[in-house]
Design goal:
439 residues; alpha/beta; Aspartate Aminotransferase, domain 2; Aspartate Aminotransferase, domain 1; seven-stranded mixed β-sheet; four-stranded antiparallel β-sheet; 12 helices; globular; binds pyridoxal-5'-phosphate
Amino acid sequence: MGQSERHSSPALPSASTLPETGWSVDHTLEQLEALRVNDVRWKEGRAFSLAYLVSPEVHDLATEAYRRFSGENALNVEAFPSLRSMANDVLAIVGTWLGAPASARGFLTSGGTESILMAMKAARDQFRHDDIRRITSPNVVLPTSAHAAFHKAAAYFDIQLRSVPVCSQTWRADAVAMDAAADENTIMFVASAPQYPQGVVDPVADIAAAAMQRGINCHVDACMGGVTLPYLAELGVPLPAWNFAVEGVTSMSVDLHKFGYTAKGASVVMYRSAALRSHQGFVTDNWLGGFYGSSGVLGTKSGGPIAAAWAVLHHLGHDGYRRAANTARDTAVEIARAIQADPRLMLRAHPDATLLSFGAATTIDSRAGSAPPIDIFAVADGLAARGWYVDRQTPPPSIHLTVNAVHAGTYRRFLQDLAGVLDQVGSESGNAGAYGTLE
Ligand SMILES: Cc1ncc(COP(=O)(O)O)c(C=O)c1O
């Protein structure tokens, strides 16, 4: 399964589990713990998707900060100035990572998807209300590698998407083809830093330049890279320009609940100008409850994720994030090397940051003799049987790894298990002993 919530609709349990007399706290917590028996062991570095950990101490801090503010409601920060102050601090920190100009303004959201939804809505409303253009049938041009959240936004906000194939060799967005796909109703180009499927950073400068030429927006989705790329650049990792330092980038998304290592429910959407940001919010007084305004999709908004983000950012500091980025990057590069060294596998792209994917080698390598390509999803099954959780993606059939700091302690074991699974899958398809092991 890739990044997906299953849409099955199981029947409701035949009886309500609500007890007549409520359970004790201890019993309730015991029952709660029992429910997680089959969950992936992400705190042990077994999940290459969905969960992130830099250390148990940081996770505990996030949990404690969350607990202290879980009941506070950021729907109205007049009532909770603490949340406004925390949110402003977080936005200022993220702004420095993004090279945001003084004119930039942002909002905290519940996650990457909400950040992207809001950037799409802001662009739609900006052009809908533009005095000269008044675009009422807008389209957005994006590479096929852009996250599914853009498709969700397009469906929610009635925006046409023009999905342009990525460059076949590099998996990066094709700026020229994107420009060719645009017309007078195009309101925005999308780039990613890095994109999720193969982990490469798009040519943001070229895409933003094309957007500027047309007088339209350019959104850079840095949900995965917004926290790590600034530190990787500082450490000398060669990276193309990817943030607001590129003229023409008008909005960006950055997730704190990924490589910010904070609690789930924290992301930032940042705009180059207050004017663009003003198209994000929603207000009405056309009901019996008086004036209502909210910045994003949510109404009531727990203070938990905001407090956790504020706490973790200040606890880790530049130094903590630098180390975490370096650790995740080194681990991703080690894994990429091992995959490249195995003739049965094909690394999709050398990771620009900390994400990578790989599939079965399709060309016959002399070391592999005449073995047929392996079934990469059988490999994913074998890894799952050994307690590893990896994402599966198509096209082409691939295993995806989101490598974060926790994997520094587990990747050698993962590579050993991967080698074992490859031998097993190979022997089941009649190629026993054709290959060596990885380590
Ligand atoms: C590049 C990118 N953008 C956006 C998202 C969506 O983030 P979320 O799952 O927090 O909504 C993801 C999720 O993995 C992502 O990889």
